[in-house]
Amino acid sequence: MIGPDTAGIAERLGEAADTATAIAQLAAETGLDVDAAYGVQTALIQRRLERGERLVGLKMGLTSKAKMAQVGVDEVIWGRLTDTMRIPDGGTLDPTRFIHPRVEPEVAFLLDRLPEPGEPIGDFTDAVRAVAPAIEVIDSRYANFTFSLPDVIADNTSAAAFTIGPWSPVPDGLDNLGVLLEIDGRVAQVGSTAAILGDPRRALDEGIRLAGRHGVRLREGWVFLAGAATAAVPLRPGAHVRAVVEHLGTTSLRASA
Ligand code: OOG
Ligand code: MG
């Protein structure tokens, strides 16, 4: 049997992102399963690397029940981050570059040296140099922000942009810190880091394990987004967005009008 056309599907998704034009879901029609979908994601990232972007990290998706419920997919997924997705803390992004962008509050890790594949992480503070509040901008390339599990994996887990606040040394506990997402000074979402797999540190174990299945190793110096603690909120032109994580501080971005 001939498998799905990995390169062709990656091209369709890449074009959709480049032109900010939604496309129809494609996994069912092309027979894409989860493994093949990660293959498409790899090809999609390759396309970015070929035009000069650099891999700077990894992101987890659907590590909280709030997110799973919002998109109707209940499996933890992972995607890749490149340098052009990073917006300086407090920076401005043009929302018309995206289809239907949403923002969500996250916790970021700055990775230190990680163990060899198969070895346990051991002490979290050996693997992670620093932590920070983060905002992820997600933008599904599928119409109506609706997708199946393989669809969202192929689409690099809706990754679009992110900001990271000031890095802090790893605190003693990360498992029950209050999280706020504010839009224009008003609270839009409230949550806790406990929503992220019970403890965001667990997201790193999952990331190492799941990416490792596809031969991807996390690297020293990479950023790791552990996944949103709350549901995502639409990013409107002109909006000022701030994420606050208790003890870690804040990060913000603005959407140009
Ligand atoms: C998929 C990406 C989910 C998260 O933090 O849970 C994600 C989506 O919601 O479009 O980034
Ligand atoms: Mg996210």
Automatic annotation (TrEMBL):
Keyword terms: Lyase
Top-rank taxon, per record: Bacteria
Protein name: 4-oxalocrotonate decarboxylase
PANTHER family: 2-KETO-4-PENTENOATE HYDRATASE, ACID HYDRATASE
Pfam family, one: FAA_hydrolase
SUPFAM superfamilies: FAH
Ranges of residues in domain Fumarylacetoacetase-like C-terminal: 75-251
